[in-house]
Queue: 3 jobs
Job 1
Amino acid sequence: MKKKIAVLTGAGVSAESGFATFRDSGGLWEKYNVNDVASIEGWYRNRKLVLDFYNGLREQLKAASPNAAHYAIASLEKDYDVCVITQNVDNLHERAGSTNIIHLHGELTKVRPEHGIYDDTGSEREVIDVGYDKVVLGDKAPNGVQLRPHIVFFGEVVPKIEAAIDVVSEADIFLIVGSSLQVYPAAGLYRYARPDAPIYIIDPKDVPVHDFRVTLIKDVATKGMEKFIKEL
Ligand code: OAD
């Protein structure tokens, strides 16, 4: 049986594909107010502003490509049973060939009715793939209500966290790439790693995780993944 690797990724894995991270200097949350564009209150205050913000990111995603770190993570599937748990809403892991992905914070290329018939947290039955198209005020779901980004806004539950906890708790190795680990519940996932499972963190900065199991590979994602694969 193949060993299991759980990989948690954050904005840093997509940085070398040209995406700004959120909390680094020059990051998205310096340019935009997170409460305006990425919270449930912000959505109800100004839907147009939120739709425009995600339309912009969708446009940027269309032009972006996976980088060597996304490909290296996908290549682990040759020898390991891999699940990628990503906080990223881009589709660069899919495009690099990863086949088992949990999108904890939603997906940029998808939308859903702001009030679902089945479930307001994003029942897969009501999710619509819009690819890289713009979504504007007045674009409605089949149930007649406004479409919203299929994104987990601040202030909303993270429906896939339980699936992610299961994956981490069963993994032989836990790898974290490019996340500041500031946002819960994703930031707490490492606590579910098995006591004997090594934890690797790839990040150019020190990430404040105080756990004896952690090995920090202090580098950018592309170079860090090369080092990680050599360690395996
Ligand atoms: P952050 O912006 O908080 O953290 C990015 C991390 O990537 C930092 O630790 C950086 O040091 C690191 N980094 C920067 N460049 C890198 C590179 N080339 N290679 C590897 N690492 C690099 O982003 P996240 O931790 O992903 O949520 O943020 C978590 C959540 O907060 C996001 O999913 C988003 C945000 O608000 C929502 O919008 C719901």
Note: Residues 10-12, 15-16, 21-24, 27, 38, 87, 105, 152, 178-180, 182-183, 203-205, 207, 220-221 surround 2'-O-acetyl adenosine-5-diphosphoribose (CB under 6 Å).
Job 2
Amino acid sequence: MSKTSPKVELHLHLEGAAPPAFIRGMAREKHADIAGIFDEAGHYSYTDFWHFLKVYDAATSVLRTPEDYHRLTLAVLEESAANGVIYSECFLSPDFCGGRDVSAWRDYLNAIREAAEIAEKRDGITLRAIVTAVRHIGPEAARETALCAAETAGDFLTGFGLAGDEKLHKPKDFAWAFDAAREAGLRLTAHAGEWGGPESVRDALADLKVERIGHGVRAIEDLALVDELAEQGVVLEVCPGSNVALGLYKWREHPIAELDRRGVKVTISTDDPPFFHTTMTREHERLAEAFDWDEGQFLRLHKVAAEAAFCDEATRARILKQLETAA
Ligand code: ADE
Ligand code: ZN
């Protein structure tokens, strides 16, 4: 898969995709001192997942207005499109965008959407948004987040999810928020099976009734669960480079290939690319090296991603056609 081969990405955190230079520029404009989150080379610097979450919050603290998010969206989509991404789904959090106030959130979402429309014309990339509650902010906040999402659900904001520290709270604590989002017509995904074991994947499916799982790779520790995922057609938003960067696996031991062999619907995403020194192009290069995957295999997985995308059927048909035409 070359840099320009068409790709579909389902799991990308908008703030987590912010280039370090972009965040430094914002910090300068706002006279904010966040120098401590970068190493000497100017990359984001953290010691483990929990420190990563803190650095993520610090970087995000310089994004303060809808205009900031407009600029961020343009920068992120330009980079995604340069790596061949034709369709992307981004996680957005009303926690960061207006402090879960519906009216402020609407302004942020409109600014992001306007940027997405510019990028679609400029770079040929289509964006859909997934509101995510942040697990470590807690279930109460998640209810407010779900109400923000429900108020703005539509053809651009199409999904609801859950990210953050998987060790805190249980999926069932967020059931109210997911029920509200489902009732508003939003499609559902949740991070699980990254820092939690197979039971975290089971709980997310049973208690939140999600159709996709963010990561989900630790399902491999329970082969009965793997069979269930395959039978039920649950889609995993796998982010191999993120898992490798955070020390969960080495490339050759990453379970994506085994999950795929066992019939689970796996897809490929970058999660927070500059944090994990990755791009969609690099993910494909590493997977090709590790598992000898060829163009046909990658095309198959991008079709799985297109089929699982939280978008309308006309958009899905267009993306599938773009994938076919390039093959
Ligand atoms: N927020 C941003 N990236 C994340 C990840 N990989 N897991 C959980 N929460 C996140
Ligand atoms: Zn993620």
Note: The radius of gyration is 18 Å.
Job 3
Amino acid sequence: MSGNKSRVQAIYEITNRKPMTVNSPQSLDKIWACDVFNIAKMEDALSKNAFKAVKKTVQTGTPLDKATADIVAAAMKEWAISKGVKFFSHIFYPMTNVTAEKHDGFIITNSDGRAITEFTGSLLIKGEPDGSSFPNGSIRMTNAARGYTAWDPTSPAYIMHTDNGATLMIPSVFMSWTGEALDKKIPLLRSNDAMNKAAQKVLSLMGETKIAPLNSSCGAEQEYFLVDANFANARPDLLLAGRTLFGAAPAKGQEFDDHYFGAIPERVQVFMQDFEDKLYRLGIPAKTHHNEVAPGQFEIAPYFEAANVASDHQQLLMALLKSTAKAHGFLCLLHEKPFAGINGSGKHVNWSVGNSTQGNLLDPGSTPHDNLNFLLFCGAVIRGVHQFGPLLRAAIASSGNDHRLCANEAPPAILSVYLGDQLEKVFMDIKEGNLTKSQEGGVMDLGLSQILNFKRDPGDRNRTSPFAFTGNRFEFRAVGSAQSVSGPLITMNTMLADSLEWIAAKLGAELDKGVDQAEAVINVLKELINEHGNVVFGGDGYSSDWHLMAIEERGLKNIPTTADALPVLRDESVKALFKNTGVLSPVELESRYEVYSEQYILSIEVEAKLVIDIAKTKIYPAAINYFSNLAEACSKMTEMNVEPDNSITKTIADEATAMISAVKKLSEAMKKHDFSSTDEHMQYCANDIRGLMDEVRSHADALEVEVADEQWPLAKYHEMLFIK
Ligand code: ADP
Ligand code: MG
């Protein structure tokens, strides 16, 4: 079937699409976490002592002894088998954004040939998936070619169902045999530890006596597009690159804003309900869903959880979005910019830190003492973003996100912090010395009545900021929709750890001098905001004025592409940050630079090859066919003494020829291999290759609006974006 025929056929079929019938939804209490071996199920299945040991491990991460591990493994196996499970798999998160699994049967055969099931503590705790084909930077070269997985008991095991059966999934870390992190989970756990240690110091100095371990929390809002599978299947760019590499702007885009929070199409609603039932079974607290700004774009936001669990759940959520969409006849696009000229997709990572004794430290609180704790932690975040803005930019660098950041609908590639008017004023008052006087000798008021009744005002939210305070948490909005949340969480926890260490040292010194506690806090914050207040910005982050001001007056960095951002991972200050906090050794950090830059280069090269292929084998033939039709018609007109209008024929000839010559240039450019460094190679991809891809596209898109509609081989924007 030729391309254009399949497109027309797709349109025909789609008009008759019906929502898929799904099993009638079950009540939430029936399905909630029914496929998760969580604390409650362990309590039911284990002896008192075994449960006590495992609970301690879950809550504090202390290793499990072998005997208890055997008991837990046996209980886990029994529970899983009772639910029809035959396989188990350690699931882990390599340095790419993917999720990796290796499945094993519970089955072994004994000496008399009978099959029995086996699952011991050591199988639970440690697996050896090898996985030697995962990119791991140079770590594998210098060590042995094996990677190990180890159960992360802080993230519960769960069952995944497919048509062919069920598998017990065991969330795991992935490391080299010498213990280097090869994944995104180990540094996340370490960053949490580093943050906890530093936070304990600050809270002790603040006179807190009972301080439970601190944990970071994350609630991630996920944006995505749905495209009918019929269209997607006829577009190799969507299937292989996750975004359209060609496509003229539609007559109706998002200008009317009628999609945002509008009625959800029925097919999509059925999909969402089915998807959310799956999330509930896995104990993922899906909370809100709605239409997003662009047509065909939607959002799902689960309730926040401990960062480590939230991060595992986020990976699972992305995988389930894709598989469920497929079952409903959609392709789910997680790409940051699937359609040029239409709003892209991000992932807002809501982040806070707290514990069971002091609560959420990013909540302003309602007593002067809580206010002080809050101001210290909030100040620590401000310092972190200022000190490590370029690192935060590197943590969200990907070829997809390059298209979205700075695109005047998404946060700019300049990292600044939005505090809201009220809180910004408090910090500016501290800076200007307006909060130093103790009032009437009593408890220092600090003028903090300003924030005592701090309310989150939805109207007060600055959507143009990449990093915003939203009442009791920070929201990192520049994260890409396809990215793992681990990288941003690791970076935020680590920069916070560094800032809290800095604060602890300064605060300790002030208190040693005999300065009163509240005054000591204000002194430290004054120094902090003097040095780092430049990163606080409440204005329009999209405006060109800000771009100028940020760089020229504030000394902030604008880092437009991944090629510019990733080299930051090699900065001495960044190496020192990760080394001193114990989050990543220099070798581990370097391996990350290597893996991420390789991924970047590869994804641009794949796109470039697709551009060449689609232009040559789909677009050019369509253009030339139509040109022949027109040319023939024109010559018939001439035979009949009608003067033909050759302008369209000529435009098509010109654009098709120009496109093919751009394709040739791109093919030539792809042959270059002699780069003196990876940085140079990345820059070449970001600028030369992408520039030439755009050149090919501009001619192709010009052809799209000239060639007869029924002869055009690729589904058009207006067809894909409006779901029926
Ligand atoms: P909005 O679209 O207004 O930003 P949503 O309700 O869609 O808000 O998403 C907000 C996200 O922030 C949710 O995942 C929510 O659970 C999460 N969140 C709320 N409070 C906290 C907190 N203290 N720490 C981390 N995440 C939080
Ligand atoms: Mg949000």
Note: The pocket of adenosine-5'-diphosphate (ligand 1) is lined by residues 217-219, 221, 288, 301-304, 348, 350-352, 360, 472-473 (CB under 6 Å).
